[in-house]
Amino acid sequence: MSKFKKDDGKKAPGINTSSLPDIVFMLLFFFMVATTTKEIDPLVKITPAQGSGLTDLTPFKQRSEVDFVYLGAPIKGDASLFDKGIAVQYDGILHKDGIKYIGKWKLDKLAAKPAEFTAPREEIITCFKADELVPMGIIFEAREILGDLNFNKIGYAAQEKGNVGGYNIRVQ
Amino acid sequence: MAKREAPEINAGSMADIAFLLLIFFLVTTTMDKDTAYLRMIPKKVEIPPEKQPEVEKKNIYKIAINNKQVIQARDSIIRPEDISELNSRIKHFYLVNRDRKTNRELNYPYYAFGTKDMYQQKLNEAYIRLDNYERQDAAKNPNIDKYIEQTLNEIAEWRKKLEIIKMYSQYSGKTEMPEIALQAHIRLESFIDTDYSAYVAVQSEVEKAVTQLRDNESSELFGITYSAMRTYWQQNMLEDKPRVSEYREKMDLIELLFPLRLIEVKPKR
């Protein structure tokens, strides 16, 4: 005597998928809230520096009050073409003049938008996203150019390091 | 007329549409936040002063980083791995003379103890000066407009300070407000070849030390930390909520008590 029923040819009941859109929409909204849009594809390699007590730039980004400058060794091509092997990326391009182009870039960016849509000059943040091995001399050169043009607010980008772990400073 | 029921819309492809959107957002966005230390480049001076103003040595906290990432804070050498020492040193710089009117540490910035009457008097003095300037003949003294403007700025400043000290007395119950010397600042020097990571690490330690001092003071006075207020303010600063202005006023007070004055010196070598 068998305790198990034999397959009597019944089909497995179909799973109700009517709540699938709800689940997917939930995921969608989570990602829409939790992420920010990508700026641009990086052309330079950046290992971010570590720090704590950083300011979140998201509110500034939403008001488009922040311009990013990327500094680091180029991903493609010959690093030795650039001054000290550090390429500077403005929006989508690596400019051959390196950091000296920053003044013109900022002025062009400011002129591209009508005056009523931009924050006052002093309020626009120029944020340096630099690789951890970039020498400070380059950044101070940029600071001087920006200071002369009255773009007074700058940012040093870094990654929140958490409570444990060090700063990854190169010891020589 | 026969009543017809509206045909049901087939929602089977809803999931496909939602998936499509989901995947689009997954691809075009990033999870990591952009975070940075915000700093100001000092305003350009139109006419450079003939003589640089003297700053007393006790008011400077000099931190230098060389091209091998070794840090010098005042007279002590700190190796890169011991960088967290900077925290307690900076706090010491701020706090050592904070409660002392006599018997002060000579090598650290002094504090001034302002009272309501004192600020009121300064404000009155500025008003009298403004009155004097306005009565003068513009033809005789071509610089008079500049003086008037300067005095107006001064008046605005003393007014703000008066508001702040009223708030301080209200929350702390004290009549005197300790104010660190105006010249007291942290001076950050680097070499041309100093690594970005080391420079940022020092910025981080400075920021952390000052934020901790501010958080402590803020918790004591208002029962909420300075960082919490700042986060709220940054996210809602454009909205017209009563809490935004309330937090801004409280933050102004804390920032006056523990100012972060950081001078970043252009490297010479």
Question: Would you summarize the structure shown here?
Answer:
With about 170 residues, chain A is α/β, with parallel strands linked by helices.
Q: How far do the termini of chain A sit from each other? A: 82 Å
What strand order characterises the main sheet of chain B?
5-4-3-8-9
Radius of gyration of chain B: 27 Å
What class, by secondary structure content of chain A?
A: alpha/beta
Q: What is the tally of helical segments of chain B?
A: 7
CATH topology-level fold name of the domain at 44-160 in chain A: Nucleotidyltransferase, domain 5
Quaternary structure classification:
heterodimer
Approximately what portion of the residues of chain B adopt beta-strand conformation?
A: 5-15%
Portion in strands of chain A: 15-25%
Report what the structure shows:
The complex is a heterodimer of chains A (172) and B (269). Chain A contains four helices and ten strands; from the N terminus they run H-E-E-E-E-H-E-E-E-H-E-H-E-E. Chain A has helices spanning 20-34, 58-62, 102-112, 136-148; strands spanning 36-37, 44-45, 50-51, 55-56, 66-74, 87-90, 93-94, 125-130, 153-157, 159-160. Chain A is elongated, with a radius of gyration of 25 Å. The mean pLDDT of chain A is 84. In chain B, strand 4 (71-73) and strand 5 form a beta hairpin. Chain B is extended and about 95 Å long. In chain B, helix 4 (144-172) packs across helix 7 (242-257) and helix 5 (196-222) packs across helix 7. Chain B has helices at 14-28, 85-95, 116-135, 144-172, 196-222, 226-236, 242-257; strands spanning 29-30, 35-40, 60-65, 71-73, 76-78, 111-114, 177-180, 185-190, 262-265. At the A-B interface, helix 1, strand 1, strand 3, strand 4 and helix 2 of A face helix 1, strand 1, strand 2, helix 5 and helix 6 of B. Strand 1 of chain A pairs antiparallel with strand 1 (29-30) of chain B.
